Amino acid sequence: MNRKQLTLLIVLAAALGGLGWLAYKKQQSSFAESKVRLGEKLLPDFPLNDVAQFTIKQPNAELTLAKKDEVWTVVERGHHPANFSTVSDFIRKFWELKVTKPVRVGASRLPALELVTPDKGNGTLIEFKDAAGKPIKSVLLGAKHMREGGAQESPFGGGGGSFPDGRYLMVGSDLATVSLVNEPFANAEAKPADWLQKEWFKVEKIKAIGVNTDVATNNWKLSRESETGEWKLADATAGESLDTGKSSGSTSALSYPSFDDVVTGTNAAGVMDKPITGTIETFEGFTYAVKIGKKTDDDKYHFQVDVAGSFPKERTPGTDEKPEDKEKLDKEFKEALTKKEERLKNEQAFAKWTYLVSKWTVDPLLKARHELLAEKPAETKTDAPPVPTPGLPGALPGSLPGSLPGGLPK
């Protein structure tokens, strides 16, 4: 190899090296320098107490939770109260969020981390706003970080496999904030039913319960004189007797009711046509008027409830009541009255919504009248009297022509 060739090779190598260096620098320049630090708060200026609404946006769903009259509500469910604990814990997590690992990325790597806005990719966008609707902060949640279980799977469940122990996220659209945090945000889903306040009404100390349908023979009413009294069937006809075993479910109806979801808008149209209606009176003075509407394909029923109350405002003193007991009893009476009135106010608020409940919740109110009755005793059948043999008047039972009395042959 002559000097000219050697020089050419050196120049070529230098050129290739330079090109490689430029490519490397270009690649590095596309990666934003992280401005978050391990262990530091990711949102140090997050105004926790100013948040009055937030939206969860996903590729095919969107959910908004907002304060209304100082109560957190689910907007997509007609502003039905949301679970305050779930909402407050969710917001607080962002306020407390600390960086587990800064992640230096370029725009090309965002899809792999699922850090692409839901209108273009599969990220989950959380947008926080104040009471006036002014944006406070937005955070894009990406892929969950999975951790291996590290143990052999148990035949009874648990062990082995993997589970989420963190999540990649980005503040706004700032590549320099991409981080891994140790919170997977499992409930960051745009599913309205998951955010509803599920504490509902509760029927106690039933005095009377009745059901009416469009079939009069299916209607019924049960009542009792005291909390320990015997249940009786109203307007019982001859031969009708209440079976206390069959009716036990009905006499404790809606003691622990629950609902799955709230139906609003066009989904609520027509679902309460020709409903089954029920009225429940309690010894405490509450009256519950309920309506059971159409059944869904997955065996759930549309349901409405309205509550009224009539409570004595003054206590009637006992005949032998001592003066020293009066103040104590009057105080207890007023406290009980206050609790009833507060309970009535809370339960009356449910009248504005149509709920979706499971079949077992309303099953006791779906029984027809005959399903509450004791079975009639079977009628005793008697043998028909023997027919005398023609031509033998006065023949003894069992006798045949040509036989002796008693049926013995001659």
Q: Key features?
A:
410 residues; alpha+beta; 8-stranded antiparallel β-sheet
- The end-to-end distance, rounded to whole angstroms, is 150 Å
> What is the average per-residue confidence, as pLDDT, rounded to a whole number?
87
Helical region count? Answer: 6
The helix/strand order is HEEEEHEEEEEHEEEHEEEEHEH
Biggest sheet: strand arrangement: 4-3-2-1-6-7-8-9-5
Question: How much strand?
Answer: 25-35%
Number of strands: 17
How does the overall form come out from the CA principal axes?
Answer: elongated
The major pleated sheet works out as: 9 strands, antiparallel
Global Rg: 38 Å
Structural class: alpha+beta
Low-confidence region ranges: 21-30, 395-401, 403-410
Helix content: 10-25%
Please tell me about this protein's structure.
By secondary structure, the protein is of the alpha+beta class. Among the domains are: 48-148 and 161-195; 206-312 and 330-372, no CATH class. The chain contains 6 helices and 17 strands. The chain has a 9-stranded antiparallel sheet with strand order 4-3-2-1-6-7-8-9-5, with no helix packed on it. The protein has an 8-stranded antiparallel sheet with strand order 12-11-10-14-15-16-17-13.
Strand and helix map with partners:
Layout: H1 3-29, E1 53-58, E2 61-68, E3 71-74, E4 80-81, H2 84-96, E5 99-102, E6 124-129, E7 135-148, E8 162-171, E9 179-181, H3 192-195, E10 206-212, E11 220-223, E12 232-233, H4 244-247, E13 261-263, E14 276-282, E15 286-295, E16 300-309, H5 323-348, E17 354-358, H6 359-362
Antiparallel strand pairs: 1-2, 1-6, 2-3, 3-4, 5-9, 6-7, 7-8, 8-9, 10-11, 10-14, 11-12, 13-17, 14-15, 15-16, 16-17
